[in-house]
Each structure stands twice: as C-alpha cells, then as structure tokens.
Amino acid sequence: MEHPRGAGGLRGVGKRGRNAALAIAVAAGTVLAGAAQLPRHDAAAATARQVEKLDRGLVSVRSGSGNFVSWRLLGTDSSSVAFNLYRGSTKVNSSPITNSTNYYDGGAAAGAAYTVRPVVNGAEQAASEPALRFTNGHLDVPISPPSGGATPDGVSYTYSANDASVGDLDGDGQYEIVLKWDPSNSKDNSQSGYTGDVYVDAYRLNGTRLWRVDLGRNIRAGAHYTQFQVYDYDGDGRAEVAMKTADGTVDGTGKVIGSASADYRNSSGYILSGPEYLTMFNGQTGAAMQSVDYVPARGTVSGWGDAYGNRVDRFLAATAYVDGQRPSLIEARGYYTRTVISAWDWRNGTFTRRWTFDSSSSTNGSAWTDEGNHNLAVGDVDGDGRDEIVYGAMAVDDNGAGLWNTQMHHGDAMDLGDLDPNRPGLEEYKVDEDTSKPAGYMADAATGAIRWQYPTCGCDNGRGRSDDIWAGSPGAESWSSATSGIYDTSGRQANSRKPSSDNFVIWWDADPVRELLDDTHIDKYGTSGDIRLLTGSGVASNNGTKATPALSGDILGDWREEVVWRTSDSKALRIYTTTAVTDRRIVTLMHDTQYRTAIAWQNTAYNQPPHPSFFIGDGMAQPAWPNVYTP
C-alpha cells in the first residue's frame, strides 16, 4: 500500500522531524558547510546484514617474470585471519601473510596453479578453489550474440553486448555474469522508431551460458527501459534476477509470459498500452517464477510530463536493505514531472510490496516533482541501520516517506559516499541539468543540506565526479564538465588542473587513491597531466559518449576493482584486474552492502561508479569490520 508521508511539502522534513531552521536553510538552497549534524542511530545500525557466501575469488595474473596472485578477505572471516599461498603443493610464503591479500610470486612459471589457505589461531584451514588464470593479463568470458533481425519498417539491426552485473546464481561461491544485449537500433526515449528485442543472458566465467531471456517486442530497447537487478533476495544462497517484462517475454526455459502474439507498438515505435509486469527469474535456469503487475503503473501517459511517450517510460531500479537486514527490490518510474518508487520483498517464491512513494500524492505536494536523476544510489544516509533511496535531488526514507529534497531538479550524474571523512555520515555530490540552477553541489546525505555549490553555468552540466583521486587535499576531490580544476570537500579549488575524464573511477594501483576509468583505459590523475596505467586491448566501451564498461567493481581478487569490457566483436567479455602489489588489507568491498547494492544498480540508466559506506583514500582509517552473515 502507499505509505503516507507525514508533513507534506517541505524539504528536509521527514519521519524524524528536522528542525525548522535547517528545513528553511535547505529550502533556500544555501551553503551549509557548518550545519550541525543529526545524531546517528548507531545502536540500530548494529543489525547484521545478509550477504553472499563467496569463495576466495583467487586470481593469478602473469606479470613480468612471475605471477601476481590475489584473493578475497571476507566479511565473515575473523579479523585476525592470516593466509598461506600455495603453488601446487609448495607454500610460497615463509610466514603467514597478515598485512595484505595479494602476493607476487617472482620467477614462477606462467601456468602455475595456486590455492590459498586461511590460517586461524595458528591452524591452517582447507585450501581454496584453484586460481583463475588471467593469461595475457586478462580473462576472456566467451559470449554468444543473438542473431540480428529487421523491424516492421524494414530496418535491419545487429547486437552488441551492453551492461552487465554479477551474482552467485548457483550458490557455489563464484560470481556468474548477467549480460544485457542491445540492438543497434536501440533508442533514447525522446527518439521515435522501432527497436529490436532486448535479450538478457547468464554466463559462468568459463563461458557456459546458463540461460537467455528474450524480453520480446513489447519491451523497447534503450538505456532507460530495462534496468535488471541481480541479487539473492530470498536468502537461499542463490541470486535471482528481476526485470520489467511484458506480453511476449520468453523466459530462460522457453515459456512465454502473457500473450505471445500481442503487439502494442504504435506507429512511432513507442509502447504506450498493454499490460506491464515485474518478473522474478530463477538465477540458475532463467525460469520466470512469478510475474505481477508492474508498480508504478503507466496510467495516463501525459501525467508523466508529455503525451508522446518520452517521460512515461523512464525507469530506474535498485536493491536496498530497507529493513536493515535483508535486501528488497526497488522499482521506479519517472523523474521529471512525476516520480513513483516502490519497494518489494521476494520471500518464499512470492512478491510482497512494502510501500510506494508517489510525488503526485496529496501528502507530498509539488516540491517532489522534477527532482530525479538518470540514476539513483542506495545507502543508510541517516544512520538508523536501514537504507534510503537517493534519487538525485531528493531522498526517500526506508519506510517510503519523503526524507528531503533540494529543489535542484534533474541531473545526469552523482556520487553517494563518505566523501568527507572529517565529518560523520555520507555526502552526495550531484551535477545539474537545469540551466537556472548551480552547476552542481555537495550535500549532507542525511538532510539534503547543501554544504557548497558551484555558480550557475547556464548550461546542461552533464558530467561530474567526486572521489579521492589526489593525495594533495584531504578527502574527495570534485570536478565536472562545466567547471575548471578540482575542488576540495569545502568547495575550494584544490588544483587548477581538471582530470581528463569525468565518467568513471576505479581502485587500481597500490595506493588507496582512486584512478580514472574512461572509455577503454585507466589513468592516474596528476597535476601536470594524467598518467596512463592501462589501455584495454581489442575492447570497446558502451553507451555512446558515456563510454562506460560493461561492469566495473570488486568482483575478484583483493579489494581493488576489476573492469569488464566487451571485445570489439562482442564475442567475449574481457576482464582486467590489477597487478600492483599493495600492503593494504581491506575486506572485499562486496561485503559492504552499500557497495554491493551499488554494483546491482550500476546498470541503471546512466551508469555510475560504486562507493562503499566508508572512506577509501589517502590517510584513511582502517575500516570497521562489516557486521554481516551468510545464508
């Protein structure tokens, strides 16, 4: 049912009753760098959260005259765990490894086989799975492009691999890859025309295809239509896959959802009538386990901001721990005139809707319209142990009530993380498309209070990032396409040179400062010029000028991140991992649930990079051990 929002209309007024002075300051859009912080509810945050039961993710990469080997430190490990690394039956380390989860085995043969063994209280435990070998510095996962076709008006199309996600689909501790295929005639919502069908595949890392779902003619292809979520929602140790479907969708077993013959496409290629479903697919087989009516429903097309079908079919999706313990599915529609967000549980083979937030509800008022982004983020912004949905210039509380909004309106990019480690809680950095608004800002993620902002640029500021990319100033540096230089956590220019990229970031080398990921290369920021660390070979990026990888995240090895690009012919997904030896030891980021849910929503609309709930960067404190459990 719809959850009423308490006090209506005022930004900064949610279930905790923000004080009037703060609400007025936020409503005015003023800089509140020194605003008092709300108390964090640390007792509530002590609740353990469900995470995946992962293996060690052991990888071996040929590097120079030896092999770089790295593995996962798990959130379920003892904080005092050490490791022994074995090449075949030979232990390669002289004493248990305690300060890192990587090792360079100089002089070893290229084809050497490795395992790693935890050491707990001096006792060596069972060996891990054998290491994945990255020959030639990368691992190729073979994939199979669908056959092309032709639209009703005779336009031919082909397929290329697009966004990907990961999940342990079969419960063996190793991630599988879920991949979306886009036809060459995919469309932005503002563009008319037919598109080919969208396909979604699941692959093991050896290239075995587990299943293929054909979403059918009644799901249009494009960045705003299909946001797929891969997560273990019911806690059975195996991930499910959730997507919006329609009549004619064919599941991974060949079963058709709804009517196989229905065709709701109009002469402009838009799909503005017919039933819409939310379907949960079995991660092992691709079987549709249950389909329910999609919420939010389409309703009257013009109620979303236009009558021809642009704004009505803008979808976002995520996964969030809104109860503080177990994951729920988040489905959303609209971010211009109207925004509707719903939260779903998947338990015992059945969907249950928790709540629905609707900006058009009489309890909300006009302050909540046009506040959404082409993306979203999830995190416990108010410290009560439960996740909120940060939707751009607004946030929705864990119970479906509006938490805050900034009235800065729509934007294309944002970051949610501990961007300023010198103050408690999380921050949001966002760039804006509204030409009458500031070009971007940093806000307190608990209240929406704007800490600092750029001047108005009178432009569509379409790109921007915030992360610690330079050790020359504390905390995150922020930059955007419409501003010069990089800015510190107080909004002062920290250096006049701006990075060459503002698309993505990645932890790649030995230090905790993050690197720049753009198109098919990785660079390190420098005040006199960026330094190239990696150029992918024979690969291509996705999503036009967004130039994003299929996926980037900590999916293998130690806490540094991998990057997954499609090969230029879309015959493989090529995974690269770092070979930089580090003495820094951090629990796998996939056992930090803010980061793990960010990997789940990374494929949503305009892809954004993930951030954990804690600060990683120069001068960082040792992160707290995660309070998690495995099914």
UniProtKB/TrEMBL annotation:
Rhamnogalacturonan I lyase beta-sheet domain mapped to chain residues: 49-130
Q: Where is the Rhamnogalacturonan lyase family 11 C-terminal domain?
A: 139-625
Name of a matching Pfam family? RGL11_C
Q: Which GO terms describe its biological process?
A: carbohydrate metabolic process
Task: Kindly list the GO molecular function terms attached to this UniProt entry.
Answer: lyase activity
Q: Could you tell me the superkingdom of the organism this chain comes from? A: Bacteria
Q: Which UniProt keywords apply?
A: Lyase
Does the keyword field hold Lyase? yes
Output the PANTHER family linked to this UniProt entry.
Answer: RHAMNOGALACTURONAN LYASE (EUROFUNG)
Recorded protein name is Rhamnogalacturonan lyase
